[in-house]
Amino acid sequence: MDRRTRKELIERLRADADRICARFGLRYQTLDAERANVKRRYGICYSDGSIKIRLGHVTTGQPLKYSSLVSTLCHELAHLKHFDHSPRFQDFYQEVLLWARRQGIYRPGSPARSPVGERGEAAAPKPARVRDPGRRPAPEQLSLF
What we know:
By secondary structure, the chain is of the alpha+beta class. It contains 3 helices and 4 strands, in the order αβββααβ. The protein has a 4-stranded mixed beta sheet, with helices on one face.
């Protein structure tokens, strides 16, 4: 993925994150693209409010669908209120995702991809409603999957 595409995606995500945060009273410190060599997660939220989101497909490097990025964004923003994967977190995440959908921020199944119209990217898995994963992540970080 080229630098321009990466910059445009992260700027668009930040603008959408600001709208979501304003609606739900959330605050994040930073929102940045995850390093290209990170392949085991789609996003991560740290206890200091820093969020990183993987923008590209693991094997092709092409941008993920924007709807997949927004789903990850909503997941990580929900961790700002509930820093776990409890039922309260899952309910809040679904509320944020539903609101983003109603606002036209989250559009699953939309053919629109990256802001520059690149093709060939793969979508992230659909968000799952996990009630209790059975283990707790380290207190300083939570990842999407």
